[in-house]
Structure formats: C-alpha cells, structure tokens
Amino acid sequence: MRLPDFVYEHLKEHDIVAEHSISGGDICEAMTVLVDGERCFLKWRADAPPRFFTWESEGLITLKNAHNTKQTGIHVPEVKQVGEKFLLLEWMEPGSKTATTAEVLGQGLALQHQCVASVFGQKDDGFIGRLTQPKGQDEDWASLYATKRLAPFLSFGDSLWPCQRLQRLETLCVRINDLLDHKPLPSLLHGDLWSGNWMVVQTANGIVPALIDPAVSYGDREQDLAMTELFGGFPSSFYNAYNEVYPIDHAGYEERRPLYQLYYLLVHLALFGESYGTSVDQILKHYVE
Length: 289
What we know:
Protein name: Fructosamine-3-kinase
Radius of gyration: 19 Å
InterPro entries: Fructo-/Ketosamine-3-kinase, Kinase-like_dom_sf
Keywords: Kinase, Transferase
Pfam family, one: Fructosamin_kin
CATH superfamily of the largest domain: Aminoglycoside phosphotransferase (APH), C-terminal lobe
Family: Belongs to the fructosamine kinase family.
Number of helices: 10
Largest sheet: 5 strands, antiparallel
CATH topology of the largest domain: Aminoglycoside 3'-phosphotransferase, Chain: A, domain 2
CATH class of the largest domain: Alpha Beta
Number of domains: 2
Structural class: alpha+beta
Helix content: 40-55%
Strand content: 15-25%
C-alpha cells in the first residue's frame, strides 16, 4: 500500500518508508512506517472531518498524562505527529492478554477514574467512531447525559428508525433525572472502552496493558464499566482489581448499566444498522414501560 500524498506532504522534512498495512478498524486505514528510522503506527482517513485526529490526539495525551501521574502501569501511545487527515503514533509491539495484565488494567482504570474535573462533559466537539460526540459541560450529570449523549439521536428521525423507538427515547430523556438520581463525580473516561481498545504491549517496564482509540470526556465512571460489559472481553480479574481500588455501588450500577450501554448501542445502530435495533428497543422498554 502506498502512503497518501497528504502524509508525505506533512512529513516532507522526514525520511519516510512505508512498511506493512495493518488493521485500522472500520473507519481508518493504517500501516507501520519508518520515520527517520523509527518504527511508528500511522492511521489516516482521507475524508476526515475537521479536528477528527486532533480530538483523538488530545484524548491520548490527556490519558497518558493521567496514567503517568498516577503511575498506574498502563501504557498510552505517544503522539508523534497529527494532521487533519492522519495521526502518527509510537509503535507498540503487541503481546498476549492474561489475567495478570487484565488485573493491572482494572487497577489502573480505577486510578484513572479518580482523576476528576469540576464539570461533566467536554469543551469541544469530539467523535465516537465516525459520529460527532457533541461538546457541552454541565454540573448536572443527568442533564449532560440526556442532552449530549442520548438526545442527539432523536435527530435521525423516523425516516431511519421506527417512530415508537424515537418516542421512547424522547420519553427516556425527559425521565432521566429519576433514573440517574445518584451523585457521581466527573471522572476522566476513556469513553469507548470495548475489548478492542485495550491491548498488551512490550515496553521498557515489561509486558503491560495499553489503551488506544479513546473518546475522552468527563462523566460517571460507570459509563466506562458498562461499555466493558457490553461486548465482553474483560475477565473477572479486571473487575475484581477495579473494585479493590475504587469500589462501585453494585446495586445501583446494575440498574444503571443498561442505560449507559444504550448510548453505545445507539452509536452502533447509527453506524452499522438495524442489527442493533433489538438491543436498543429492549433497553428503552425496560426504562420507559
């Protein structure tokens, strides 16, 4: 695969050698490259909207700073270069996930969630997959979650989704204060923590877990945990370690978990189609009927 011209143009002062194509997920293309002799990971998207990769790079930097400060043992890749249509990161040599690395991940995520802001949300528009994750900050978590996470999907209209689904979603947004009546702190969230967004890498400190592809904002830490359970891939050692460091209210979380998973299912429904519709409808019925 040949590198796109816009990458060469942005990095024209460097010696760039394309190596091997690798998976860039559903959104981007990716490959390993040598930049001035150093192996790096390059991902790009020719039709990237403004700030698409800037948003990701800012999230990675925020997470890296938090994990370095807390000395969590979790690695976050260094941002080497960012352009409007590409992101260049350090290359991380992948390893195999084990119960031990999952335990370190659980402990580290608990420490990350202890990094808190004064308000919920984010200052700038961001992205979750190819979709915009709207900007907005609020001292009230329930209001932020309703207006900036769930309500934007109402704009898809009944031409794409069944009218009843949208009516239930609208009702849910109105009732959100009754459903999210606890008082969480504005924790630093990864924001898209499914099993494909954590890996195990070889570093100078040994084999450690690493976090990639974030959608960083500040919110209820249960949102990250709910995403880990949505598609699986996180063993019991992860949850046990998390709760040893930063215990959750299990009874309350069990009731709120589907509400937080709803956001990610709506994202998948919008991106990948009706195969996620049944799961969305089941959660809406649970809370609205």
